[in-house]
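Fold this: T9SS type A sorting domain-containing protein
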Amino acid sequence: MKKIALLFCCFLVINFASFGQNGNKTIQKLKSETKAQVTINPSNGIVEFIKFPAQQPFALKGNTLQQKAFTFLDAFADLYAIENSELQFTSQEIKTDNYGFKQLILKQVHEGVPVYDGQLRFHFDKNLKLTAINGTVIPNIKTEATAVLSSSAAGQIAVQLVEKQQINYSKQALEIFDTKRYIFPKGLAQGYVGNTYLVYEVEIRNNADVREFLYIDANTGKLVEQFTGIAHALNRQVYEENYSNLVWQEGDALPGDLDIFQQTEVLASGHMYHLFNNAFNYDSYDGAGRTMRTINNNPNIDCPNASWNGVTANYCTGTASDDVVAHEWGHAYTQFTSNLIYAYQAGAINESYSDIWGETVDLLNNYSDDLEDLSVRTFCNSSDRWRIGEDASAFGAPIRDMWNPNCNNDPGKVSDLQYRCGEGDSGGVHSNSGVPNHAYVLLVDGGSYNGQIIEALGFTKAAHVFWRAQSSYLTATSDFVNLADALEASATDLIGINLKGLSVTDVDAGLSGQSISANDLLQVVKAMLAVEMRLDPEACEYQPLLADSEALCNAATTGRVFFEDWETGTEGWNFEELPENAETWNTRFWTVEGNLPDGKPGQAVFAEAGLIGDCVNDFENGIMRLESPVINLPNIESGNFDLSFDHYLATEANWDGGNLKYKLNGGLWAIVPSEAFTVNPYNGVLNTAAAGNDNPMEGQAAFNGTDGGSLLGSWGTSVIDLSVLNASANDTVQFRWEMGTDGCNGRIGWFVDNIAVYNCSAETLSVSSSTLQNEIQVYPNPSNGLFKLKKMNNISLLKASVYDINGRLIQQVNLSEMTTEASIDMTNASTGMYFMKVQSASAEATFKLIKQ
């Protein structure tokens, strides 16, 4: 996944400059002293994986694993840009795995609040020497950790959002299953680290077809991110259609009255149980013997399909082949080990692990294989080996090919054209899973691919390497680079260990006599190279909807003809709403809002385009209109006039969007054409009515959608050359910002701020050309003592003098170097009335100030 987004290039420059030099020195010191291999996250410069040589683990001082870990952090703090490790990390559990290795997990906290997926995992050998460290650390968090909203309020917001998303097809009651508070780094799932938010993670379930994780801003109540928890694609129970109809449970006879698919659900779930219990000493999907519950013909899933919803594995008739059954239980095992999210590369790894365990069971269990050819593959259809769902009649054909993912139009390596980008399929989870799938097959069967010749390790070695990576190294947002590091570290850890054999029956296979060798480790490395696991997918260079732009000319700040930043009201502006269905329309005028996205200071005007309407009984199609005052373009004959504005947009792509209209010299309103923009024009055209769009702005050019690889937007500036609209000196012009929505669904809406009209060739205005009183704005007034003095045009001022009602001078402020605004601080003055004299070289004006 592309980890460096243009959206955050400025952040990166500051970040690297602040600690990069010290971090680089510390990395070189660590490498020199220990010969460690180090992986750095390019989006924030922080180390994310350290692997020490197999023959030279790192000995640390300390009587406990916690002491050893903090000894390391104190010595190498610059690797993670931390200042006080004991304040920024809390010690969690110590695990001892089935190989006898120990692992200590430190969780990152900020002001006592856990950081989402912020953790470091310290891996120790049997002599308690450090073999590896991996995890995610978010540096330089500035977010306040005090919440405005309660957890219950956030939960209700989350329920309402899920209801509006219309994904509860079963109509089962939604419930707030769990709520946790986090510092949440935006973009972590997509491969970059952006702004951080204080959020509540709210898990909404109905124990049928809804399991969603929503991250609600704990201050504003807005949706920051959302991930699905429904993964599609020994104590056992099988139900028919719902929980009230138990048709089989542990101890009942087989096959009894079960049909072939119900039998497979029983047997294949048992095969999964025995595989993990025998080989890895892991008892059921939670490691603690939890009952494995299945619902056959679950009416609450969209058939033909199969799913794991966090409670049950669910199947439609004809989907429960042994590999598909094992696949869905694979999601359950993932939930209780790495807990990988179901989005982007982390979701592709999640999906891949289910394919891997599903097909491993299928190829080892000798079940329902009578008519199948499972010989080693030589071309796309040469045998059924490594084909997912080949026995699931409802699918009609295998749904994925692990031996050569290209055979099913999926990528076998990261650079393949089939690699999926964008939001679809939760970031391409079902397709991009082909990359780790292919790596597993190359290790099991061997092969020559992409310039690498990989010798076969067989199932036992490959399965142990992948299991150790899953159970010990991977975290919720691990990407392909992290997976490559984890697999190589796991192979290193297992060198020389007699591995347990694989058995899918209740008979333990015992020790296999096989162990990972240095040559086997080399094959793992070569497999990672073959599928390009560490390569950035160039096709997914996610871009913000609004690109970074160069600074505007000086006149845009010091010589403006017109300016609006919404800090002093909305005088002169017109607000309208134009619903197509007034009887169901939710009132949505443009409104002035604080608490702006990405922590932008001040206020902006906002048009909502959220998750509303159902396109059945509630239609929310209409326009929200923001109309400017008439703007007089002054007698400046040189150069062109420009209009600039800052904005943030996140809408339902192609259906909802916004654009600008203009009126010149009192004429007719017309859309500002794309060619008039010199910076950040419209990014697309809204779907037409013929395509089903009931938005009254259908077919118009508009800003629409979200940032690439995200459900959100980011701030940017657009600039319009007014000469393209035939506007010139002494003309009048008006503008409308129009936000149009269709009948249902949505994202967030459109924020607009800092609207300016200016002429870059204009010289500083002489104060004699206008009245000084009208060239200055003072706000807020009345005030608690902090006043702002703002120039409305490019004039030169000398000073401001404040007097009390008796004429005594209270303070003076030098304005000679003032650009646009200056502060007048009277917080220490008594309440009452004051007078402020503002002077230029040729004039002065007096303003009354009220200190409350």
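The first strand starts at residue 37 and ends at 41. The chain has five domains: 22-136, 151-228, 236-531, 554-759, 767-851.
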